[in-house]
Queue: 3 jobs
Job 1
Amino acid sequence: MNPRSFALIGHPVGHSMSPFLHTRLFSISGTNARYAMKDVPPESLSSFLGRLRELDGFNITIPHKQSIIPLLDALDPKAAESGSVNTVKNENGTLTGYTTDGEGFRRALESEGVSLCGNVAVLGAGGAARAVAFEAAHAGAAVTIAAREHSLAAAERLCIDLRAAVPGARAESRLISALSGKWDILVNATPAGMYPHTETCAAPEELVENSSCVFDAVYNPGETRLLALAKRFGKKAVGGAGMLVCQAAAAEEIWLDSRFADADLKRLSEETSLEVRRQFGNIILCGFMGSGKTTCGRLLAEQLGRRFVDLDEYIEQREGMKISAIFAQKGEQAFRRMESEAVRQLAAETGLVAAAGGGTLLQKENADALRANGIVVLLDASLETVRERLKNDTARPLLHRPGNRDAVGNLYRERLALYREAADFTVPADGAPETVARSIEKLLAPDYRSDEL
């Protein structure tokens, strides 16, 4: 039996997660299908329609979510009222457009035990905000569309559309700076905080503090500044990976007339968060002294065209003194504080290959910060290899403490389990640095196909 054919069209589509998601979803449902991508410039959309009619269905991303509508044969009511289509089903030659973004938002909240109700503040007035706002209005929530000054007119138009399309809808627009009071759900539907501009935060602290749940539609990075702020205030924080997975699942349910189990989607959301970090985040190498982190890291960064940072060297440059001198003059505790500050700075950057110090990931907050925007790879060198590589090393303070007769062995055994717990992936590191670097590079390659339509 020939596989069924599906695809994504947009402009651009190069960094889409759709091939990963739909490949995994086809596997979960046991569907024999292929999924391709095609970059279709706006001026080519009409002429490409004939090719799309050969498919069983397709997804649409920016900038075609509105412009595809006049080319379709039919429109689902939710897509018609929102004025946006992200999924098309081909049924006996009839192309019907649907929107699953709003359903993906609602199901992502529900998977985290949050009901879409009460007072909902939506930051932004674009396509994502529109999907979220319509879903919230249909659920009976009171919706406030909050925008910056330059987008306030769009926010007001969205409110008018909501009140016209959803009977009894409660919707008003406001400037973000004018939001006050308590909110059941605060939703970021803007690009603020998205890779590579991860340093920005969509909402001021007071607004986050006054919200019971914070939802960020951004999924790259998995933990944005907004979500980190929400967690700091003890709020329920829900990231965009769940919405991404649930909207894709809703699309396949339309294509296949099926239903995915919540538990399967929960697991896929966790996989997706890791895959986003693997594809787009920093690569952090950890391991014991002598495992080859710096040498392999430099080789890997050169192979991938990334910037390399050695955390110990970074601290030395910032402090203007060697690590050994910091230990001798200020003590290990002071060094660990410097190390944690350096981790916070580097975790906010993107596109790095970084070699962590031997003790960096022993502190959970350091491991959490680095994994929020990247993957941690353990270079797993055996104790015999480590002993051989460190036998003439006189520059590491922790190996030269008085009375410690087997400093290398004792410290190695003490730390190895903690390294394994902190790492996302592990690669053997007894071989040549070139071999280890190639192993890491293979680890980063996707295990699914992304065909060209």
Job 2
Amino acid sequence: MISAGSLRHAVRLGVRGLAAHRLRSGLTALGIVLGVASVIVMLAVGEAARYQALKQLQDLGANTIVLKSTKPTEPPKEGGGADMFAYGITYADLDRIRTNLPTVTAATPMREFRKNVWYQERKHELRMVSVTPDFLTQNNIAVLRGRGIESQDEAEYASVAVLGESAADALFPGLDPIGRTVLVEGGISDPIPFRVVGVTADKVLATGGASGDAAEFSKVIFVPFATDRVRLGRDIVSFKSGFNIERLDVSQVTVTVDAVANVPKTADALRSLIDQYHKQKDVQVLVPLDLLRKAEETQRMFTLILGAIAGISLVVGGIGIMNIMLATVTERTREIGIRRALGAKQKDIATQFLVETLVLSCGGGLIGVLLGVAAAYGLRKVVNIPTAIEGWSLAVAFGVSLLVGLLSGMYPARRAARLDPIEALRHS
């Protein structure tokens, strides 16, 4: 065992020896500094990406299942009657889900499409989303001003609307939209007035949107689902590329299951129920719990790959330390011989060189941690790249730098300790 006094003496000698060659010591430690900093930045970027992906999925809830209407790729068949343009989830499907599946505690419908909305001379195309009163709460969409859609609005078929923050800024720059009336394109009918009662914060959901991709609830106008059903009806009419008509009851249904353990079997039951009435496969069943697990696995692999790539620079830094320490052993061969002749043991020589290596790696690791934290902060503030620094990533980066330093110094220290004292004294 090495006494505390001997260790302090070895550290003083190590620092003195490194200080005698400041430039060389600094360049040697630079590999560790950059390696630690790159590990921290890579892990911070990977952790931020993982957090954002999982947060979007978690907003939907682990005990929910999402049914989405998907437009068939084949054109409607002639002779289909009034419903030849109809597709997706119907009101009948919604009733079947609510009544036939005992594990379902709630089924929340939503319909979305694009409409021109204007206030005075300002006109913008917005995503119109008809929702029930619990939609904003269920999807963690915050109300910034005013209020959301309420049960009374549904019961009275009220012509009220809640705007997304970006939509409110576009239609009412510098104005308070609460209480003002916007006009919504009515298809083949006259424009429909809606009174603005609230403004929501911008939000992105991982499995929102009619396509099943991420949906951005920013440039959006929310209206009561019952009001949409009565005022706008099933037909969605557009004139973008000629006269187009679609017949859609419900764009999406968010099904809440009584327990997370019942989600898989409820999803299977939903698929079976939907397949009975939708032979053209125009309804997609998405399970956020499955997506959450896949996202966690993918992001974990992504973070490991980033960390491994950054860790290579630490290995390169360790090779640099070993190379320099081997050169130092050669330079100080005569010094080693003198110390051995004066009574120093092999472990004293080995400790001396190992301490110098650890001083290099420890100092480089500390500077690398500070540089990595500063770089991650700079990416977030200056380049607007999201980063998330976890305490474990700092500990891992610094710990690996110490381990690399220890392993890199063991061979040079062992070689120095095993030098023959007589041969060392003859070295010039």
Job 3
Amino acid sequence: MGIFKKSPPPHAVAVQTGLPASHPFSKLERYVPLSAPDYGLYRTMREAVPVLDAAVGKLTRLVGGFTTVCGDERAKAALDQFLHEVRVGAGGHGIETFVSAFLEQLLVNGTAVGEMVLDASRSDIYALYNAPLQELELRREDNPLQVTVCRREGMEAVPAPYQELILLAALNPEPGQATGTSLFRSLPFVTSILLKIYQTMGVNFDRVGNLRFAVTYKPQNDAVDKAFAKERAMQIAAEWSRAMDKNSTVKDFVAVGDVSIKVIGADNQILDTEVPVRQMLEQIVAKTGLPPFMLGLNWSTTERMSTQQADILTSELEAYRRCLTPVLEKICSLWLRLHGYGCPVTVDWDIINLQDEVEMARARLLRAQAAQIEETLENGAPLPDVTAENQKGE
């Protein structure tokens, strides 16, 4: 009978219905870059990492505004009024509102789709609409140069009946592809590591920063202490809970016997995360093309945009403008044709100026001094002391 003994019950078991310990954006960990772009993933990345959200907003604003150029002044005035008053979506108005949403969609998803909505009489553009990509599908036709925009209706993709009213733009498309490349394409892996670090920091501070105490009662060798050790331990636990109650005032804890109190986790040191976090942020900043200080990252006490950085950023913004120009010219051309104007129209973008205001003021001062010197030399008067004026201005 004693040969077959029952195995002792396990001291701990795994709970199969428990939630795994992970950061709230765990979708980034399951991302495998082998299929079509996951637009939901890119939105999650922008929501999870403030640097990405700030980069998209900064690039959208830095692209700047534009003016239209056409041969007929009457047509230009009417077109400018239309662009200023056109409805956008449900509650917006103005072409700037449409361009901002269109460019954000282009940067985040790599592809942007809009639509020109005509009025009931088909004689005017009633509104501009930014279409959500989750409800659309791009279909390749037999002609590789033709793409049809379809809307999803259940399990089917139905082509839009008026393709000429669709506004489509792709950012850096790969050869043979109709969709573009997102600005976030190479960042899911880096973002997942960054969020793991942030999640670990939060867990460590929750364990170490929110103090937990270990109260240990050591009974003496006499029989009385050994007999009532359990009762005294329960009494100490109850009094300790009362003393540490968050909803009550500060209380003192008094115990009799050999009682020791230690802070759990006080001897452990939290890992320094400054270096790995900076390495991940450097990869993100390099992908956006913006200087670090524009995103709130003051990595140097002498942080300042140099001429080389300004030129590189200007070239990036010019590339985004080249994607938007055909879309804007299509809107303007259709409006002019609907109103009987046959003049061609072009888009003239504002000059991108990223130079420091102090340097610009100093340049204007030097040009004014040069003009003053030339005028003085022409009149035969003695030259002014511009060195003293510069030192006084500084």
